[in-house]
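Pipeline run #58 for the internal structure catalog. This entry was flagged by the ingest filter as a single-chain record with no existing model, so it goes straight to prediction. Upstream metadata was stripped on purpose; only the residue string is passed forward. Reviewer on rotation: M.T. Logging verbosity set to normal.
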Amino acid sequence: KSRVYVPTAFSPNGDGLNEYFKPVSIFLYNDKGNSIYDYTFEVYNRWGEMVFDAKDVNDSWDGTYKGKPAQGGIYLWRVDALGLDGEYHTYSGRVTLIR
C-alpha cells in the first residue's frame, strides 16, 4: 500500500541537520523516470497563504517565503499523490519550523 511519511519539525539554521522539509514516499514510484504519477506538495502559513508548493517528489521546502526566512512556528502541509496502486492518496498535517 502507498504511504507517505512526513517529519513533524525541521530547523533550517545552517548547521547541516534537518535543513529541509519534505515528505518521504513509499510505493508511489513509476517506471517512467519521474518518481510519482501525479504529485502535489503544499505548505501553508497560519493565515492560509501558500508558502511553498512542489510537483516533483524530490523538491523540499527550505523554510523561506518570498526569498526570505519564514517565521518560526507551525505550518500546515498537504500531499496529493497517485500511487503505484492506481489510487489517489491525500495526506495532511502540521510541521514546526524551528528558528
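catalog note: DSSP finds no helices and nine strands in the chain.
catalog note: The mean pLDDT is 87.
status: ready for reviewer M.T.
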